[in-house]
């Protein structure tokens, strides 16, 4: 009997200890749902500490952290050798290094946006801090922005460039010397770099292995390496991925068809729909003939664009990207407020079909002008292109080429929201070049105006400054 009582007491103690231990992993019950991101309460050693010689770093948070997400989100530059040990106690974690840290070295810690608390609240911006094992802490600063539609898993790699072989800075097979993440605004910061020359890459590290996996990840590069001479200065470095740019070749893109409007029979899809308003005077039009069995000649001979008031037929350039997709570009601008009509008279073809699209050209009062200049070039040694893209109608965009002037003006632009993008065409091929990581080829210099420009009818948007 006494033995049974002892067993019961012992089991109760063990159960209580287990329950207490588990309670340390769980959030308190009751109250409103917690939706705030986790925050750091204390770091040991304190950020920017000097002459640190221990082999542990502790971080205390204001709430319970998902431990796996913490391990995956922690980046240390330079990367310590060996496997780290993590010792948790409630909301506090102690990181233990298996070997002594390098002497006279600044270590930078980045806790990325992938870290979350146990209620699935993620960080909105990376957490950064640093300390030094010597008497000096490096304070070289680089900041920038990554222009992309999808910033998930974007990591900035930085390699110390000692004018060695490019193969030793190949992100495909070499870990970066330093790395960081973008915040919720796609901005990034390096705050503790040593003086020297650096080569930077922006990687969509989908495999999360701190390498550029060809075929799995995306990568983009800068126009040049960055040389840090003055640690009180902040150096700028902006990246751009191709997914950020509107597609100027939609006519040959698989993205086009979902943007078109079908007729009631589903035979003809078009970029303009019946009774459309505010169509620009210099529009181009795209048509998709689904399951087309007609020849290009049959279609070309039986399509017309007519001004219904003046009874005038417009001549058009017809550009085929396939037997089913046709771009029609009027050879002259349409009149403001005109009522226009496309006619597809295919009754005498195999299709035996007739279709009309009546639409309205924009009122002149719903267009405006946009002008500005380049502010930081003495004289363009290479052509400079300025492009604006309508953010609603993806087929509306305009381009200006500047060869011997700093000033640009876009006239009679339909009202709307516009993205302005400019670049220096250094190889004179009329396209923006994104460069390549290996063999290294720099990207061309570019500029994105922020925020997007809002052009209203009858207004002039002036003093738009471009600075490379």
- Assign an overall shape: elongated
Largest sheet: 5 strands, antiparallel
**Helicity level, as a percent range?**
under 10%
Unreliable spans: 5-10, 12-24
The span between the termini is 87 Å
CATH-defined fold name of the largest domain = Immunoglobulin-like
The tally of beta strands, per DSSP, is 33
Tell me the structural class: mainly beta
CATH architecture of the largest domain: Sandwich
Number of helices: 3
Number of domains in the coordinates? 4
What would the average pLDDT be, to the nearest integer? 90
CATH class call of the largest domain:
Mainly Beta
**What portion of residues belong to β-strands?**
35-45%
Description:
The chain folds into four domains: 36-137, Immunoglobulin-like (Sandwich), CATH 2.60.40; 142-244, Immunoglobulin-like, CATH 2.60.40; 250-362, Immunoglobulin-like (Sandwich); 366-466, Immunoglobulin-like, CATH 2.60.40. Helices cover 7% and strands 38% of the residues. The chain has three helices and 33 strands. Strands 9, 10, 12, 13 and 14 form a five-stranded antiparallel beta sheet that branches. The longest helix has 22 residues, at 2-23. Residues 5-10 and 12-24 have low confidence and may be disordered.
Tell me the layout of helices and strands.
Blueprint: H1 2-23, E1 40-44, E2 56-61, H2 67-73, E3 74-77, E4 85-89, E5 92-96, E6 106-111, E7 127-132, E8 140-147, E9 154-160, E10 178-181, E11 187-193, E12 196-204, E13 218-221, E14 226-228, E15 234-236, E16 239-240, E17 261-262, E18 268-270, E19 285-289, H3 296-300, E20 303-307, E21 312-314, E22 316-320, E23 325-330, E24 339-346, E25 353-360, E26 367-374, E27 384-390, E28 397-402, E29 407-414, E30 416-424, E31 446-448, E32 453-455, E33 460-466
């Amino acid at each position: 009997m006494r033995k049974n009582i002892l067993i019961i007491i012992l089991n109760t103690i063990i159960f209580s200890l287990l329950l207490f231990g588990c309670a340390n992993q769980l959030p308190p019950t009751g109250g409103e749902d917690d939706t705030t991101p986790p925050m750091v309460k204390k770091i040991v050693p304190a950020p920017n500490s000097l002459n640190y010689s221990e082999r542990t770093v502790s971080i205390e948070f204001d709430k319970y952290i998902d431990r796996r997400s913490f391990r995956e989100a922690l980046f240390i530059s330079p990367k310590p050798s060996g496997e780290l040990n993590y010792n948790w106690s409630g909301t506090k974690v102690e990181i233990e290094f298996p070997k002594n840290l390098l002497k006279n070295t600044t270590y930078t810690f980045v806790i990325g946006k992938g870290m979350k608390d146990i209620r699935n609240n993620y960080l909105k911006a990376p957490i950064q801090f640093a300390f030094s094992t010597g008497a000096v802490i490096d304070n070289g600063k680089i900041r920038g922005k990554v222009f992309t539609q999808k910033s998930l898993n974007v990591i900035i790699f930085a390699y110390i460039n000692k004018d060695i072989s490019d193969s030793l800075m190949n992100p495909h097979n070499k870990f970066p010397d330093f790395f960081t993440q973008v915040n919720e605004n796609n901005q990034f910061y390096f705050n503790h770099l040593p003086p020297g020359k650096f080569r930077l890459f922006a990687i969509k590290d989908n495999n999360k292995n701190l390498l550029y996996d060809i075929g799995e990840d995306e990568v983009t590069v800068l126009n040049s390496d960055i040389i840090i001479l003055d640690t009180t200065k902040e150096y700028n470095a902006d990246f751009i991925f191709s997914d950020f740019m509107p597609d100027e070749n939609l006519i040959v893109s698989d993205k086009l068809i979902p943007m078109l409007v079908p007729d009631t029979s589903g035979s003809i899809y078009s970029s303009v729909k019946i009774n459309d308003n505010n169509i620009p005077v210099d529009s181009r039009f795209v048509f998709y003939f689904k399951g087309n069995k007609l020849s290009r000649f049959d279609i070309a001979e039986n399509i017309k664009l007519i001004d219904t008031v003046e009874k005038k037929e417009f001549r058009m350039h017809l550009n085929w990207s396939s037997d089913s997709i046709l771009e029609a570009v009027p050879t002259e601008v349409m009149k403001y407020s005109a009522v226009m009509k496309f006619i597809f008279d295919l009754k005498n073809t195999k299709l035996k079909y007739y279709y009309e699209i009546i639409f309205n050209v924009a009122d002149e009062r719903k267009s405006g002008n946009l002008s500005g200049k380049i502010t930081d070039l003495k004289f363009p040694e290479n052509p400079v292109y300025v492009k604006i893209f309508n953010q609603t109608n993806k087929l509306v965009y305009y381009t200006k080429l500047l060869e011997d002037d700093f000033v640009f003006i876009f006239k009679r632009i339909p009202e709307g929201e516009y993205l302005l993008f400019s670049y220096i065409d250094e190889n004179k091929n009329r396209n923006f070049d994104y460069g390549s990581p290996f063999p290294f080829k720099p990207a061309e210099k570019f500029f994105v105006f922020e925020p997007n420009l809002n052009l209203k009818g009858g207004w002039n948007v002036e003093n738009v400054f471009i600075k490379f």
